[in-house]
Design goal:
This protein is an alpha+beta fold and 397 residues long. The chain is 38% helix and 20% strand. The chain has 12 helices and 15 strands. The chain has a 6-stranded mixed beta sheet with strand order 5-4-15-13-9-8, with helices on one face. The longest helix is centred in the middle third of the chain and has 22 residues.
Length: 397
């Protein structure tokens, strides 16, 4: 339990100090939990199901792994779903934490993949501690809902079953006091940082063909030390605090996704990874392209799929067409220009595979017989046909 005058709690033997932030917070890891102890009074705002909202009397904040990321429902995970209060009391009891003084975040992400990033300007500092996974639960704001809450119970909506593994959790610590309004704004700024990471990594929604802006189970807790003078009133992008929050959260989330999902700019250099959000799989992509090739070229393509899929110029041309499709869906480009856009950009896809850029005009003529559309399967088939068009000429003298 917490001792008087900010002294550290007694050691249990298995915990490790991961980070000391200023002289206000110490962050520990033990088994499947990362928790922060407040050495001075803090104001906290969080999405915690039991102690959510704004509080000035909390002593700890933790992020706990309740189960494995896939196909696992541990006792803790089951209790968390049925009784958040019971789950909180159980976890706190295991780690000698006072449950009534804890802000809690839960996830299936590995706590050993937690990433710490700090940013400072003069005497102002922020620390972001993030875990994250987007392998099954990434979504775009406004996607179709999977559940409807009524009288404290959740009921499935439609035919899509909710996928709960994949959560981005953020613990953010600030060494200056903030107004309550600035605390709320800090969550907005942190959320923008998260969405920026997913945009840069081109993470697709699992529930639509759009780019993801988060997951359906993301959680956040923000803590600022109190009694440091006039409270800071701004945490938006124009303020230095907002800049520091954005940089720290962005870097921490990008780092944890690399560890948890092997999701990096390098691994996203792949045509397939950019087309998965349209329902494509590795095997369906290979089979579609093979169906357009003679047997010898089809076997050669399968054996060298990864090389073609990750070729920088092929990726560039495919991603360009995907981005143009998004611009049409968003209304920036008119649908009436689909034939010309798809024809011109499609020719570059074929040429990037064959390497024969002098054949651009030929490819444009050949593409005219195809029927480009925005519909998911038709769109991916169009791209696959173009890759096949280029591959069948790649080794022709």
């Amino acid at each position: 339990m917490r001792l008087k005058n900010g002294e550290k709690r007694r050691k249990l033997g298995g915990e490790m100090i991961l980070k000391r932030f200023d002289d206000t917070v110490v962050v520990y890891r033990e088994e499947r939990i990362v928790y922060a102890e407040f050495l001075k009074p803090h104001r906290v705002i969080s999405t915690c199901r039991v102690s959510g909202g704004i509080h000035d009397d909390m002593l700890y904040m933790y992020n706990h792994q309740s189960c494995e990321p896939a196909n696992h429902h541990s006792m803790s995970h089951s209790i968390a779903a049925r009784s958040p209060q019971g789950d909180k009391e159980m976890i706190c009891g295991l780690h000698d934490l006072p449950h009534e003084k804890c802000v809690t975040l839960g996830t299936a992400a590995n706590m050993r993949n937690a990433v710490f990033r700090e940013a400072s300007f003069k005497d102002l500092s922020v620390l972001a501690v993030c875990t994250g996974g987007v392998e099954g639960n990434a979504g775009r704001v406004g996607d179709p809902a999977t559940v409807f809450e009524e009288n404290g119970r959740f009921h499935q909506v439609g035919d899509i079953k909710p996928v709960l593994h994949g959560t981005i959790n953020t613990m953010l610590f600030i060494n200056r006091e903030l107004t309550e309004g600035a605390m709320v704004r800090s969550i907005m700024t942190s959320t923008e940082a998260k969405s920026a990471v997913l945009q840069e990594l081109a993470v697709g929604s699992k529930y639509s063909s759009g780019l993801a802006t988060g997951t359906g189970t993301d959680q956040i807790g923000v803590a600022c030390v109190m009694n440091t003078g006039t409270p800071l009133a701004s945490a938006g992008k124009h303020s230095m605090l907002g800049e520091l929050i954005g940089k720290a959260v962005h870097a921490a989330i990008k780092g944890t996704l690399a560890l948890q999902n092997d999701l990096t700019p390098e691994t996203q250099r792949s045509c397939l990874n950019h087309m998965i959000r349209f329902g494509l799989t590795r095997e369906s992509m290979i089979e579609r392209i093979q169906s357009r090739l003679n047997s010898e070229d089809a076997d050669l393509f399968r054996d060298n799929f990864s090389v073609i899929d990750k070729d920088p110029l092929v990726v560039a041309s495919v991603v360009s067409l995907i981005h143009l499709r998004d611009k049409i869906v968003w209304g920036i480009l008119p649908e009436s220009c689909i034939p010309e856009i798809f024809n011109h950009q499609g020719a570059y896809i074929a040429a990037s595979v064959s390497g024969k850029y002098k054949r651009i005009t030929y490819y444009m003529e050949k593409i005219k017989v195809l029927e480009p559309e925005l519909e998911r399967e038709t769109f991916t088939n169009f791209i696959n046909d173009l890759i096949a068009m280029g591959f069948e000429e790649k080794w022709v003298k």
